[in-house]
Amino acid sequence: MLVLLAGIFVVHIATVIMLFVSTIANVWMVGYSDTVKASSGLWLLCNRSCRQLVVASSDDASLKAVQAFMILSIIFSVIALVIFVVQLFTLEKGKRFYITGAVMLVCWLCILIGASVYTARLAKMSGFQGVHHGYCFILAWICFCFSFIISILYLVLRKK
């Protein structure tokens, strides 16, 4: 049981780190303009230098929603990690990790909403050729899977 808890803890920390990287780095979309590589993230458009990400006025609310939900997912993931450590040492057997699993499900939902809105509304770079998804976009979806698995494991572990 201790090895299982340690493994979940390590995966949870890895998920938090990957969420930070995917939210902060500006490589959600990658394209080329005259053989110069450009990348677009949630905050900046980087070509030779980085500048504020400019989106159409109809997509501005979508961008703000993605930014907010990705930040919320980081917050809920860190809160779940703290709650896990607190519950590990304070609650008796049979009542552990219920709150942690619920908070991680909220984190999972935030990642789902943020990544889905980005996929539906913002996954384009006008004026660039060879546009494809960058590593931050892929990390966000990996965190989506990890957070769901972790939350289910927390809910199952509460019975042990």
UniProtKB/TrEMBL annotation:
Keywords: Glycoprotein, Membrane, Transmembrane, Transmembrane helix. It is a multi-pass membrane protein. It holds the Pfam family PMP22_Claudin. The chain crosses the membrane at residues 7-29, 68-90, 97-118, 138-157. It comes from the Eukaryota. InterPro entries: PMP-22/EMP/MP20-like, PMP22/EMP/MP20/Claudin, PMP22_EMP_MP20. One of its GO terms (cellular component) is plasma membrane. It is found in: Membrane. PROSITE patterns: PMP22_1, PMP22_2. Belongs to the PMP-22/EMP/MP20 family. This is Epithelial membrane protein 1. It comes from Crypturellus soui. The gene is Emp1.
